[in-house]
Amino acid sequence: xxxxxxxxxxxxxxxxxxxxxxxxxxxxxxxxxxxxxxxxxxxxxxxxxxxxxxxxxxxxxxxxxxxxxxxxxxxxxxxxxxxxxxxxxxxxxxxxxxxxxxxxxxxxxxxxxxxxxxxxxxxxxxxxxxxxxxxxxxxxxxxxxxxxxxxxxxxxxxxxxxxxxxxxxxxxxxxxxxxxxxxxxxxxxxxxxxxxxxxxxxxxxxxxxxxxxxxxx
Length: 217
Known about the structure:
217 residues, mainly alpha, two-stranded antiparallel sheet, globular
């Protein structure tokens, strides 16, 4: 089961102190989708890996609320004006928390791979929230950021490039763009660095291109 723990955080934008729940234990007994979305049995942990200040809208992982975090006045203003208004009508969902964390990370100049991971997790949260359009929106942003990371000189380690290339293809497949999906699946072979260890990536890329599945078996 997923176990949560209350932690005390201080917002570096508005200085508000608040409590948030964080994950101390979880499981993968619910299976893994072919976009690497690992499911837990029972309560899903994803929304609790990020934290959000409900006063101003600032969000991030635990370290983003540390005493050493320094924000420019421009970022503080953007948080208040661009993120804060989203909190006026409803409690923040898991996907909103990740979206806010991604925007803050972008303003702080975080690398494309990190942004991609945040948007991918936002999409995964949308699956549980039943929001199909938002899911597609976040998958697009994740795919674009992963592609940007692959294009960067050192954005993705050589041994991970085949997996990330496959993932971009799978994201486009789930969005419904089969042409882009197949193009990315076809690139996987060129990114393999260890044929024996990475044979599974080639197999799953071929599978998702010809007879896609929703879950790894």
